[in-house]
């Protein structure tokens, strides 16, 4: 089976990072806290998927994003093997992000300290990547 390609964003604002709690019905990583995003459609780039997925899931339009990392996850009980391209989302339009679809049971803004104890987390790398994204927010504000 081919490795799935996934793009997701860590939205940052005022020293906090937005995560979504994946719905119980999701076949991959149900009931886990995750970055906002999803699978790439045929012919789509990771950047394009990021913009589309964030629009579909939380109703905002990405204006500024920065690549953070590619993370390879092997197949597990929580889902198929996938390559996750993760971005820091530093600016968006369309107002306050809102949980506008059934992909997540809730969304929330978390400080780095809160992320450290956020369980279960879909990718342990999110703890480090969230801190990197917040550092980019600080630089962008200068």
From TrEMBL:
Q: Which SUPFAM superfamilies match?
A: Nudix
Family indicated by similarity: Belongs to the Nudix hydrolase family.
Under the heading Pfam families, the entry gives: NUDIX (PF00293)
Keyword tags: Hydrolase
Q: Which GO terms describe its molecular function?
A: hydrolase activity
What cofactor does this protein call for?
Mg(2+)
Q: Report what the protein is called.
A: Mutator mutT protein (7,8-dihydro-8-oxoguanine-triphosphatase) / thiamin-phosphate pyrophosphorylase-like protein
**Key word Disulfide bond present in the record?**
no
Which positions fall inside the Nudix hydrolase domain? Answer: 2-134
Q: Which domain of life is it from?
A: Bacteria
Q: Which PROSITE patterns match?
A: NUDIX (PS51462), NUDIX_BOX (PS00893)
